[in-house]
Design a protein that fits this description.
By secondary structure, this protein is α+β, with helices and mostly antiparallel strands. The chain is built from ten helices and seven strands. A hairpin with a 2-residue loop joins strand 4 and strand 5. The radius of gyration is 33 Å and the shape is globular. Bound molecules: 2-acetamido-2-deoxy-beta-D-glucopyranose (5 copies).
């Protein structure tokens, strides 16, 4: 009676092991089925056309810059250059917050011509990847779409970060929005103000106060995160590890017992 119970048990085990093995053996052919041919390959664009309006309306938010681009019609100039894959274009786009935090020289009483020049000042009539700026810093004042001289920008590369200087605006590229050969769009932290519009009588900036605060905080964070990381792993894992070992031992025992029984039958 007892013996037949054990026999039933072990044969049931064998059946289970076999059926699961069979299930595994039969399942692989399914993924080999021919991949669904229905989604037609996307029609490859003949030229790499980038719609600047589209791009700027979803990124950022760059709504203020985009509104100026459209009201001054500079968008047509830039889009035309973007379509020109020979040279391409590099645009520096300030975020909405850069415009809203601009207090001292206001844009409000600029003429329409000055506003147009200001927007043109935010682009270079050539495509530059971020790596190209290392080179560009050597050719110091770089002419913008607005012109040369007091419409030129200075670039410096400080350990991989691109810094821009218009005299009035000292800022940096804070992120790359788009950078594929004919079109580069980089986010900058400030509105670029040219000396040609605002003059060379630049008030000395007393701005860089917030910088040291942000330099201190990461250093202060790291020791605390290390100490919390050191505490937590000491408590939880051993119990779960113990359980895993126990269940593993039980499975091995069951298989060993049923294996021995099968040999004897
Ligand atoms: C570019 O995108 C804008 C906004 O989506 C759209 O109104 C415009 O027609 C597009 N221009 C072209 C030439 O496709
Ligand atoms: C740029 O190219 C697109 C697509 O070829 C075209 O629809 C658009 O009118 C062009 N825009 C300009 C300003 O050349
Ligand atoms: C803008 O207005 C201020 C005074 O409100 C004036 O000092 C300045 O010259 C004006 N700028 C231009 C470009 O008209
Ligand atoms: C970088 O500068 C060197 C010399 O200044 C020049 O020969 C080279 O063509 C430049 N490279 C690019 C990508 O502009
Ligand atoms: C840009 O660089 C040139 C040459 O190094 C220098 O003469 C000029 O003053 C700089 N302009 C600004 C706005 O920093």
């Amino acid at each position: 009676m007892k013996f037949s119970m054990i026999f039933m048990f072990s044969s049931t085990l064998l059946f289970l092991v076999n059926s699961s093995a069979n299930a595994q053996a039969t399942s692989p052919p399914a993924p080999i089925l021919p991949p669904t041919p229905s989604p037609a390959p996307a029609p490859a664009p003949i030229s790499p056309y980038v719609n600047l309006t589209d791009l700027l309306s979803v990124a950022g938010p760059f709504h203020t810059f985009l509104n100026y681009l459209e009201s001054t019609k500079v968008i047509d100039t830039f889009q035309n250059q973007a379509n020109n894959t020979e040279q391409g274009i590099t645009i520096f786009v300030p975020k909405d917050t850069a415009f809203s935090s601009l207090k001292k020289p206001s844009l409000s009483n600029l003429t329409q011509d000055q506003l147009k020049q200001l927007i043109l000042f935010h682009a270079l009539p050539r495509y530059y990847s971020l790596a190209d700026f290392k080179n560009l810093s050597e050719s110091s004042p770089v002419s913008t779409f607005a012109g040369s001289g007091q419409f030129a920008l200075n670039f410096t590369d400080e350990s991989g970060t691109v810094h821009l200087d218009s005299g009035w605006s000292k800022t940096k590229v804070s992120s790359s929005v788009h950078s594929t050969d004919p079109v580069a769009i980089y986010q900058v932290d400030k509105v670029l103000l040219p000396e040609a519009i605002f003059g060379t009588d630049i008030p000395p900036s007393s701005a860089p106060a917030p910088a040291p605060a942000s330099e201190i905080s990461p250093a202060a964070d790291s020791p605390s995160s290390e100490s919390t990381a050191g505490h937590s792993p000491g408590i939880a894992p051993p119990s779960s590890g113990h359980r895993i070992i126990n269940s593993g031992v039980w499975i091995q025992l069951i298989f060993a017992v049923s294996g021995v029984l099968v040999l004897f039958l």
